[in-house]
Structures are given as C-alpha cells and as structure tokens.
Amino acid sequence: MKIKNVVATVLIAAGVTVVPTFAGPGRMASGHGRHMGRMSAALSLTDAQKANAKQIFEDSKREAQPIAEQMRQVRADLEVAVKENNASAIASLSTRQGQLAGQLSEIRSRGMASFYAQLTPEQKAKAADLKQGRENRFEKRRGDRQQ
Q1: What distance in Å separates the CA atoms of residue 18 and residue 30, rounded to the nearest whole number?
Q2: Is 97 in contact with 13 (CB distance < 8 Å)?
Q3: Of 1, 15, 38, 61, which residue is the least packed, with the fewest Cβ within 10 Å?
C-alpha cells in the first residue's frame, strides 16, 4: 500500500512539473511577444489597452519570478529524492511543488482577469471565439494522435 502512495505521489509530481513557471527567457521567449502581437491584432486593442496589457503581464511575471525560482529548486530536490528513493522527501517536495504551482496559477489568473476587465464587450466576445477556436484545434490534434 505504501509503494502505491509513493508511485501516485511521483506521478502527480511529474504531472505538476509541466505547469508553466514563467521562468523567464528561454527558447520560447520570443513566442510570448508574437502571441501578444497576434492577440492585440485579433482583438483590435487600442494603444492604451496594449500598454496596460503589457504592464499587467510584466507585473505578473515579476511577481511569479521568485516562485518560479523556488519551483526550479523543488524540482531539482525532487529529482534527487527520487534517485535516492526517499519516500518522505518525495511526499513533502511533491506537496510543496503543488503549492507553488497553485501560486503561479493564481498569479496568472489574476493577470488574465485584469486584462479581461479592460476589454470592451465586443473584444470579450472575440476573445471567447478565439479561445473556442484554440480548444477545437487542440481537440482535433489530440484526436489525430489517438488514431
């Protein structure tokens, strides 16, 4: 029974590690700028909205940075605990990793809520359409892989 708990904890921890951590520039760093540009164009944001959005997302990134650093350290510690088969460390580090992921999710969600609050009703409707399109494309790709 104990080994099942350890295995479940490791699997959960592995799943949590795929949560974006706002870790700063990396190989995908330029993608964020392109995404913002496409979003600005698709939603027809005004210059004031663009400036406000940039500030919102920069503030979110700055707030997330120390948590992202903690997340990297916890992941490294968790890797060591797994290699050492240290069940108690795996359990506590996995719990900590989940807490940090939750904090990052909260920061991102608050930023998105602030951004969304500045949109006009037409822009909100367009944003909903864009989101639905992304979800449809994702489901199609997922379905193609399963065949």
Answers
A1: 20
A2: yes
A3: 1
Per DSSP, the three-state class of 44 is coil
Q: Is 31 within the bounds of a domain?
A: no
The pLDDT tens digits of the residues spanning 126-135 come to 989 988 988 9
List of residues 6+ apart from 81 with CB closer than 8 A: 89, 90, 93
Measured between alpha carbons, how far is 75 from 98 in angstroms, rounded to an integer?
11
CA distance 81 to 122: 51
List the structure tokens of 138.
């994702």
Q: Would you say 43 and 123 are in contact if contact means Cβ atoms under 8 Å apart?
A: yes
Which residue reads 């940039």 in tokens?
54
Both tokens of 19, joined, read: 């949560």
Helix (H, G, I), strand (E, B) or coil at 111: helix
In percent, the amount of the chain with pLDDT more than 70 equals 77
Distance CA 27, CA 99 (A): 26
**Nearest alpha carbon to residue 110 among 56, 40, 35, 37:** 56
Q: Does residue 40 belong to any structural domain of this protein?
A: no
142 contact partners, CB below 8 Å, separation of at least 6: none
- For residue 16, being part of any structural domain is answered with no
Residue 141 lies inside a defined structural domain of this protein: yes
